[in-house]
Design goal:
binds (2R)-3-hydroxy-2-(alpha-D-mannopyranosyloxy)propanoic acid; mainly alpha; single chain; three-stranded antiparallel beta sheet; two-stranded antiparallel sheet; 11 strands; 456 residues
Length: 456
């Protein structure tokens, strides 16, 4: 690879389209999606779901902004601005920004667990200390594109750009735990796919905290059979507690769990393409971002790709974790990915049944431990299917993309704005009125094809 300078932190400085379905059902779905987003809006951001997730989540806000831009471009800008308002001095974007108006026991682990306000450089508003997949630069660019005039009038990108750069800089420096050029997640919650079977082996080395030491709140609002187990939670709590007690310092030795995740690295690479477009818009140099995108794409492909999919790598052992999950197909969102055709063949295979299953399953349909109703161990999700739809368009697979869009919209029309779905029967699972389901349905209704301008 050609050497290039990766940018360091710098000082901060209505579409009007009609619903794409073009019929009464599309109009009804559009209205229902808007209603969910309006109901879940809280002063300056959207909660993923009113009861189960009553605060602001990081990658949820990115997906929400992508939908919200059709409803109110300014509100979509504010969604991202409020998240980046909780950025830490080291550049990290916390995975949860807590709403101080919400009762302390509404969600576990809450502010008293994370104790962020005692950390030098953390914001005044309480947050968690871990992160989530970096979908934000892409979301910011798409939000800008919805109404460039309104965005320019508010100085949206000039204000957000340095914060996005600082966020990516945190990831590419502090989170390159192995020196491979790829970033590591240090908690399953950081993947966004919390209890994916992909994490079972690295997680098995973590000693669970006894259940008597914490009180789960998720089971007050969702069926236990569809959520992670108590043992999973004991391990999640152990990892988060250790990280907190180390002052949220990053080092391979300090983390009991460290994995180079294909989706996070792919979103970062796609995000660098978006940052190049944003840099050009704000009068900064796009070249370092193009260079970073090329380097990440190269490192991702040479390190994590094998035989038709990308596998996560356990940073402690160096071994690839050879499970087939949707995250292994999502590097398809990276422009110029050299193995796109191979990924699409895997998506069409019995493992994922792209041409029939809907939403696309989160985990291998042929695996013995596939569970079509349990959280990230098999059900299909709208956000990962949206990313696949985006990637299919990016690589010229418009027929598969159009077919997937049609079936996703139909699925939600029949089963509602659920959190996740059985990919074969379509039965809805998890919470209802889930924000990113509504936002991304709205996006696909309003934009029959994604806006690839300048990021492709
Ligand atoms: C789920 O994760 C949270 C922890 O972050 C939880 O289970 O309590 C995941 O589906 C994650 O991807 C999502 O961002 C979050 C809020 O929707 O819920």
């Amino acid at each position: 690879m050609t050497a290039c300078t990766v940018p360091g932190p710098v000082s901060p400085a209505p579409s009007g389209a009609s619903p794409g379905a073009g019929n009464g059902a599309g109009v009804g779905l559009d209205r229902a999606a808007r209603r969910v987003l309006v109901a879940n809006w809280r002063r300056h951001a959207t909660v993923p779901a009113a009861r189960l997730y009553p605060h602001q989540w990081s990658w949820d806000s990115a997906f929400v902004a992508i939908g919200l831009r059709h409803l109110s471009p300014v509100r979509a800008q504010r969604e991202l601005e409020s998240l980046f308002g909780a950025q830490w001095a080291d550049g990290r974007i916390p995975h949860i920004v807590f709403d101080p108006a919400v009762p302390a026991d509404a969600y576990f682990p809450g502010p008293s667990f994370w104790r962020s306000t005692g950390i030098p450089g953390a914001p005044a508003v309480p947050t968690s200390g871990i992160v989530q997949p970096p979908a934000h630069a892409l979301a910011a660019w798409l939000t800008f594109r919805a109404d460039p005039g309104a965005a320019r009038a508010r100085g949206f990108l000039p204000r957000l750009y340095p914060r996005l750069v600082a966020w990516h800089h945190y990831l590419t420096t502090r989170r390159d735990l192995t020196g491979s050029g790829l970033i590591s997640i240090v908690h399953p919650w950081e993947s966004g796919m919390d209890n994916s079977p992909a994490w079972d082996v690295p997680l098995s080395r973590v000693t669970p905290v006894p259940t008597a030491e914490f009180t789960r709140r998720d089971l007050d609002h969702a069926a236990a059979a569809e959520r992670p187990t108590d043992t999973d939670y004991g391990r999640y709590v152990r990892l988060a507690r250790d990280y907190r007690d180390a002052g949220y310092a990053d080092s391979l030795r300090g983390h009991g769990f460290a994995v180079e995740d294909p989706l996070c690295n792919a979103l970062l690479a796609a995000g660098e393409h978006a940052l190049a477009a944003i840099a050009a818009e704000v009068g900064a140099d796009p070249a370092p971002h193009r260079c970073a995108a090329a380097r990440l794409t190269h490192d991702l492909t040479t390190s994590l790709y094998d035989g038709g999919t990308f596998f996560p790598r356990d940073a402690h052992t160096g071994a690839l974790i050879r499970t087939y999950s949707i995250g292994g197909l999502l590097p398809l969102i990276v422009p110029g990915l050299p193995v796109a055709a191979e990924l699409i063949a895997t998506a069409l295979s019995d493992r994922f049944r792209l041409a029939g299953a809907c939403p696309v399953p989160s985990y291998d349909l042929t695996a013995d431990d596939h569970d079509s109703g349990k959280y990230w161990r098999g059900p299909g999700w709208i956000n990962t299917s949206w990313l696949l739809w985006y990637g299919l368009h990016l690589h010229g697979e418009t027929a598969h993309a159009d077919d997937l869009r049609r079936r996703l919209l139909d699925r939600v029309r029949r089963s509602g704005f659920r959190e996740y779905f059985d990919p074969l029967t379509g039965t809805g699972h998890g919470t209802d009125d889930f924000s990113w389901t509504a936002a991304l349905v709205l996006d696909m209704l309003r934009s029959p094809a994604p806006d690839l301008d300048q990021v492709a």
